[in-house]
Write a structure and sequence with these properties.
Aminopeptidase; seven-stranded mixed sheet; globular; 5 helices
Length: 170
């Protein structure tokens, strides 16, 4: 298993991976499969090669792309970097891939000058929340709707990047 930043030419693999994630966990994301499957190729190319963000992927030699997470500036109300769109294929969960993805994003955030990193997790997604809390993310008290047209809410967790150094990529 290799966990690394995506290459710009891998945008098609990113699209396929993201669409799989949206089908597998529709209540974890602020957008829907229907919305993103309609995005033009240019939008996917930008996601794979954005100057102010990082997209990390987990690549298994036999299975191809099996995990992803992105990092960028956090949203209003949270000082620091944001961790967005994390997903690991159910067939390979429990192997440390989530920690590895967080490590790549945390390394990028620290190198970019951020001191904190935050994320939103849907209330009720206890497996994901447990992972983040185990790594030291704490509830900030911030709550936001997941997206328009749903009653789901995300809670915002954050931590200092110094507290994640054990998970940074070498």
């Amino acid at each position: 298993m290799v966990i690394r930043p995506i290459r710009p030419d891998e945008w098609r693999d990113l699209r396929d991976l993201r669409l799989r994630a949206l089908l597998d966990a529709p209540d974890a994301y602020g957008s829907t499969f229907e919305e993103e499957s309609a995005d033009p190729d240019e939008a996917w190319q930008r996601r794979a090669n954005h100057p102010e963000r990082i997209m990390a992927v987990a690549v298994d030699e036999a299975r191809g792309f099996v995990g992803m997470a992105s990092g960028g500036p956090a949203w209003e109300g949270l000082d620091g970097a944001g961790l967005f769109g994390m997903w690991v294929d159910p067939a390979v969960r429990g192997q440390g891939i989530g920690e590895g993805l967080i490590g790549v994003i945390a390394s990028w955030a620290q190198a970019s000058g951020y001191e904190r990193i935050g994320l939103g997790v849907t209330i009720g997604n206890d497996v994901a929340a447990h992972l983040y809390e185990r790594l030291g993310f704490e509830d900030t008290g911030l709550r936001y709707p997941l997206r328009a047209g749903t009653d789901l809410t995300i809670r915002v967790l954050a931590t200092r990047l110094d507290d994640l150094t054990a998970y940074f990529e070498p």
